[in-house]
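Usage

Read records sequentially. Each one opens with the input sequence:
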Amino acid sequence: MKVSTRENLRHCKYTVFHPVSGFEEVKWNDKGSVAISFVVLFLFFLINVFYQQMMGFAFNMVNPDKISMISIFAISVGGVLLWFVANWAMSSLMNGEGKLRQIWVVTCYSLIPYIVFTALDIIASNFASHEMGVFLVMLYAFGIAWSCIMMFFGMYQIHQLDFKGTVANIFLTIVGIAVMLFIMVLLYSLFQQMYTFLYTIFSEIMFRV
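and closes with the structure output:
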C-alpha cells in the first residue's frame, strides 16, 4: 500500500516527539520514507554549511576564507554514511533484526532535532550579545542530545536488542567507524606514496628522453 507524502511527513513529525512508538512503526508497519530521509540528509549538510558561514560574528570562530564545501560534505554526509555502514555491519554480527532501509530511516530521522536547533542557534547568534553565548551553546547541545536520544531508541526498536545490547551496538558502531577511518587513512597514504613513486619514475624517464 502506497503511503502519501503528507502521511510520511506526519509520521516523521510524530517520530521526532515520540521516538519509541514512531520507530516501532518503522519496524513493524514499514513506516518511514527513504525519500524524506535523503531530504533530511541534504538539510543536515546545508545546516553544517550555514553553521560555519552564517553564525553571528561574535560567535563564529571559523575563517570564511578557509571554509571548504568538500570538507563539510565529507564530514557531514560521509559521517552519516559511515555510521550507516558500520551499524549495519555490527548489527549483523550481533544478530540485530534491523533491515538496511530501517537503519537508514532511523539514522536520518534522528538528525532532525540537530538540524532544527542548529538553525535556531544560527538565527539567535545574529541577534544575541556575547554574554548570551552560554545559552547558544546550551541550545546547540540540546539539539545534539535530542538526536542522540532518538538514535538510541531507534536502534533499540529496529534491532530488537535489550538495553545493554543497544548500548553495545552503538559502541561497536563507533568502533567500526574508527576502524574504517583508519583503513581509509592507510589507503590514502598508500595511494599517495604510489603516486609519488610513479610520478618520480615518469619525471626521470622524461628527463632522460
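Summary fields computed downstream for this record:
- The helical segments are 5-17, 19-28, 34-53, 69-93, 100-109, 112-125, 133-159, 163-208.
- The chain has a mean pLDDT of 92.
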